[in-house]
User: Which sequence fits this backbone?
C-alpha cells in the first residue's frame, strides 16, 4: 500500500520524512514510530490495517534513520526523539484535527520514545487519547558483554558517534523467511549502534521504569513472547505498574510482531484497540 501523500515534518533541527495514509472521513489518526535501525516504509502493511479500520495513519522516519537527517543511529540526547514526536503530532493534527482521537503507536525503540514522552505528558492541543506499544524496548534480552557497555559509556563522552555492530540478525526479528530476505535487502536498514545512543536509550529505559505509573492514558501492549532482543519480562513488569494497560503476550512470536508469519494476530489486536478508541465507544 502506497501512502496517500508524503508528509514532511518540520522540526527545530531539519525536516523528517513522513508518509500519510488518509481515508475519507477518518475516525481518528494513528502516529507510528518505528524501531531502531529501520524506517517507516516497513510499516505500510500496518498502515493498511489502520486505514481498513477507518483511521488515518502517519508514519515517519525517526531522526538518524531512513530518509530523515542525522548520523545513522546517533542522537545527542534522547529528548531530541521526543521533541521530534511532538512535531509529528502537530502534523497529525493538521491531517485530522481534534476532537478526533489521536493514538501513538510505537514498535520497539519507537515504543521507548512513545512511553518516555508519555511519562511527562503531552503538549496542550495534541489530544493524545491512548497508546499502543509493540515489543517495547524497555530492557535488553540479548546479552551485551560488560566491556562493550563500559566502552559505550566512555565513548559517549569522548566519541559519541562511535559505531559498533549491533549484532542483530533478521532471524531474530521474524520467523517469516520472505520477511527476513526483504529485511536484509533493504538499503535503509542499518546494523550499528552508536555509543551515545546506547547510553541515552538506557537512561530512557530507566526513566520509563520509574515513571510509568504516572501514565494515565489507556495503553495496549502487544509483546513478543519469544523475543530474543527486547525483554518481554521487563515489559510485563512495567505494564503491571500502569492502571490502564491492556497487556497481550503472543507466544512464540519473535521481535517484529507485525512481520511474523502469524502477524494477523497482532493486526487483530491493533484493530480491537482502534475499535475501543473510536468516537462514541
Assistant:
Amino acid at each position: 500500500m502506497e501512502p496517500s501523500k508524503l508528509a514532511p515534518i518540520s522540526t527545530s533541527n531539519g525536516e523528517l520524512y513522513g508518509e500519510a495514509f488518509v481515508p475519507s472521513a477518518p475516525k481518528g489518526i494513528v502516529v507510528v514510530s518505528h524501531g531502531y535501525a529501520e524506517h517507516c516504509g516497513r510499516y505500510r502493511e500496518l498502515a493498511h490495517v489502520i486505514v481498513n479500520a477507518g483511521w488515518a495513519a502517519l508514519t515517519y522516519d525517526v531522526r538518524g534513520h531512513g530518509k530523515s537527517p542525522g548520523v545513522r543511529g546517533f542522537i545527542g540526547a534522547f529528548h531530541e526523539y521526543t521533541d521530534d514526536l511532538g512535531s509529528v503530532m502537530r502534523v497529525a493534527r493538521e491531517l485530522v484535527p481534534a476532537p478526533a482521537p489521536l493514538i501513538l503507536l510505537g514498535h520497539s525503540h519507537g515504543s521507548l520514545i512513545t512511553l518516555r514522552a508519555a511519562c511527562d505528558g503531552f503538549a496542550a492541543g495534541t489530544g493524545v487519547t491512548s497508546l499502543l506499544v509493540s515489543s517495547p524496548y524497555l530492557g535488553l534480552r540479548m546479552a551485551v558483554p560488560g566491556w562493550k557497555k563500559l566502552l559505550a559509556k566512555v565513548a559517549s563522552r569522548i566519541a559519541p558517534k562511535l559505531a559498533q555492530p549491533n549484532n542483530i540478525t533478521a532471524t531474530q526479528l521474524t520467523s517469516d523467511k520472505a520477511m527476513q530476505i526483504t529485511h536484509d535487502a533493504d538499503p535503509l536498514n542499518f546494523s550499528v549502534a552508536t555509543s551515545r545512543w546506547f547510553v541515552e536509550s538506557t537512561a530512557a529505559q530507566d526513566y520509563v521504569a520509574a515513571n510509568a505509573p504516572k501514565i494515565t492514558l489507556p495503553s495496549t501492549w502487544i509483546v513478543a513472547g519469544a523475543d530474543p532482543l527486547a525483554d518481554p519480562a521487563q515489559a510485563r513488569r512495567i505494564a503491571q505498574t500502569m492502571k490502564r494497560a491492556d497487556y497481550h503476550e503472543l507466544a512464540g512470536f519473535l521481535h517484529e510482531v507485525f512481520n511474523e508469519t502469524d502477524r494477523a494476530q497482532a493486526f487483530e489486536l491493533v484493530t480491537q484497540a482502534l475499535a475501543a478508541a473510536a468516537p462514541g465507544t
